[in-house]
Write a structure and sequence with these properties.
Beta-Lactamase, about 575 residues, 4 domains, 5-stranded antiparallel sheet, alpha+beta
């Protein structure tokens, strides 16, 4: 990089002409001295002699002007370097090379204070325009500290003989001679020094060299301050960019949708989740009016938007029922928050969207599940521990079947029949769930349930018996709301025994059920129960005989059983049955 300055004054050619003229005048002077014509006046001889003497002075002035021109040219070039870039290190290397060349220095160093206040060499160059190895940083710390403390430039033509530095170890050890050192300031604050020396020759530097270096230091101080400011801005910009990228990543990865809009309700930002929830591309949302972007939500949001803008108050948990979007019906919860700048002036609003569609669906599924399994049981289930397969355990199985339903169904339409059936089955299911039992399934006009699984229940037999009695008694309340020709009753069978309980099916379609002879036995007992009758097996009765009142009945010949099944008709529970069972 070179700065081209027009050479309006050709000092070199002028000096050559003066040399030629000086030689010519000397020849004339010699000739006139040897051959002095009488006709020439005396003032001619004197004028030639005076002119010859003046030429020497003129040549000295020309030489001085040439030195000054070179210094000014170098200073201008240095100023150009300093102001041509904000990459300070590269610029200062060029500048130091120029200073060394002009001042005939052997080396040049630029030192700056670090945050701890220590002087650290930033640039070190030699006379062949190479960076100096740190092992060769042999400089006079005495000179440097004097400049730093006094704040004044310093020149010594021979440090070895300069009384100011007599006995200084660095001066003697490093054999230092010609030294220039000037303070480097920015906004009147000392930030460092520029140091140049020549270890070979004494008297290499003059006051002009010191003045030129001081002038450069003034420019360099401004350049360094600008470079530091630029670096600070660049670092801040990098931090802001990194923070923005982080925020973009956070917004992009958030499950909740986020929209921001300005005071004119124009969308400024839309994260990925918001675009997914609304079923539209972000390009169709950002830059558009909220009313255009959310036409079906606008009537709901608009009054709250105005409230947020005017009062700076949040609106939280605003829910709306299913809204039609391109991806289908969506249930939403929205929160609106004022968007403020650093002066806390509201510049818009942030809208957080939560897609409740799946949550609503799961809640509906849970409510349905709660109609089959007691909520108390559901709370204790661990989905992570439910796997395909099962485990063997003792349960009490209850079957309840509506008696006479087949004949009854012939007199009703399918719709009316289903309505009546649901009322009877719901009554039975509620009685089972009230005792924390599990409704396994509905088999036409029958209900299958069991107790003691999946959560163990020490009093599972008593719970099953209470549920059966509640099913029978609940019919009185149900019949009070129905026509007499719709009055039906249940036949109930109960048996206690081992069964395998677990998940049956595939990973996509599972059924939690009980399998075993005890289930079949309970069903066979129920098939032999009359209307309103509760029959319990010998195995069930044996465990609670002191807690129940029964009536003996004939053993039943159950299908698939070799021997008759001994059963008892349950009349009721003793008053202390609940307390003893619980204990």
């Amino acid at each position: 990089m070179e700065l081209n300055i027009p050479d309006s004054l050709t000092f070199t050619s002028l000096d050559q002409k003066l040399v030629h003229l000086d030689g010519l005048l000397k020849n004339i002077q010699d000739t006139l001295t040897k051959v002095r014509p009488a006709s020439l006046p005396t003032f001619v001889y004197e004028g030639v002699t005076q002119l010859a003497g003046s030429l020497g002075q003129i040549r000295k002035q020309v030489s001085t002007l040439e030195d000054e021109r070179r210094s000014l040219r170098a200073l201008a070039q240095i100023g150009y370097y300093v102001n041509s870039s904000l990459e300070l290190r590269e610029v200062l290397q060029l500048v130091m090379d120029t200073i060394i060349r002009i001042s005939r220095a052997e080396r040049g160093f630029l030192m700056l204070h670090n945050p701890e206040g220590e002087l650290v060499i930033q640039v070190a160059r030699n006379w062949v325009q190479e960076s100096i190895d740190p092992s060769e940083f042999e400089i006079s710390r005495t000179v440097i500290y004097r400049v730093v403390n006094d704040g004044l430039p310093l020149l010594t033509t021979n440090a070895q003989e300069d009384p100011r530095f007599t006995g200084q170890n660095s001066v003697v050890a490093y054999n230092l001679r010609s030294i220039l050192c000037v303070p480097l300031k920015a906004r009147d604050e000392m930030i460092g020094v520029i140091y140049a020396d020549n270890r070979i020759r004494s008297g290499m530097f003059t006051q002009k060299d010191l003045d030129m270096l001081s002038a450069f230091a003034n420019q360099a101080g401004v350049a360094i301050e600008n470079a530091r400011l630029f670096e600070s801005v660049r670092r801040t910009l990098a931090e802001v960019t990194e923070l923005k990228n982080l925020m973009d990543n956070v917004f992009a990865s958030m499950a909740s949708g986020v929209l921001t809009a300005d005071v004119e309700e124009r969308v400024m930002m839309c994260n990925r989740a918001a675009a997914t929830i609304l079923g539209r591309a972000s390009t169709e949302i950002v830059g558009h009016d909220l009313k255009e972007t959310l036409p079906r939500l606008a009537p709901l949001i608009e009054p709250h938007l105005q409230r947020v803008m005017k009062t700076d108050q949040q609106v939280l948990g605003l829910e709306t029922n299913a809204i039609q979007t391109p991806r289908g019906m969506v249930d939403l919860r929205m929160s609106l928050t004022p968007l403020k700048d650093v002066q806390q002036v509201t510049q818009g609003v942030a809208i957080v969207l939560e897609d409740l569609t799946e949550k609503k669906k799961l809640e509906a599924q849970r409510r349905l599940f709660e109609r089959m399994v007691s909520p108390a049981v559901i709370e204790q289930l661990n989905p992570d521990r439910l796997h395909l397969g099962g485990r063997r355990t003792e349960i009490t199985v209850l079957f309840a079947d509506i008696r006479g339903f087949t004949g009854f169904s012939e007199s009703l339409s399918p719709e009316g029949l289903v309505a009546v059936l649901n009322r009877y089955l719901a009554s039975a299911a509620e009685a089972v769930l009230h005792e924390d039992g599990t409704v396994d399934k509905f088999l036409g006009d029958a209900v299958m349930a069991w107790f003691n699984a999946p959560i163990p229940q020490e009093d599972h037999i008593i719970r099953a018996l209470r549920a059966a009695i509640q099913i029978r008694e609940s019919l009185n309340a149900l019949h009070a709301t129905m026509r007499e020709d719709m009055h039906l009753s249940f036949g109930i069978g109960i048996h206690t025994g081992d069964a395998v309980l677990g998940l049956v099916g595939t990973e996509k379609r599972l059924e939690y059920t009980a399998i075993g002879d005890s289930v079949n036995t309970a069903k066979r007992i129920q098939e032999n129960a009359g209307p309103g009758q509760i029959l319990i097996s010998q195995a069930t009765y044996a465990q609670v005989m002191d807690l129940v009142e029964v009536r003996p009945v004939d053993a039943i010949n159950a299908k698939g059983k070799r021997e008759p099944v001994v059963v008892y008709e349950l009349v009721g529970l003793r008053e202390d049955a609940g307390a003893e069972a619980g204990g």
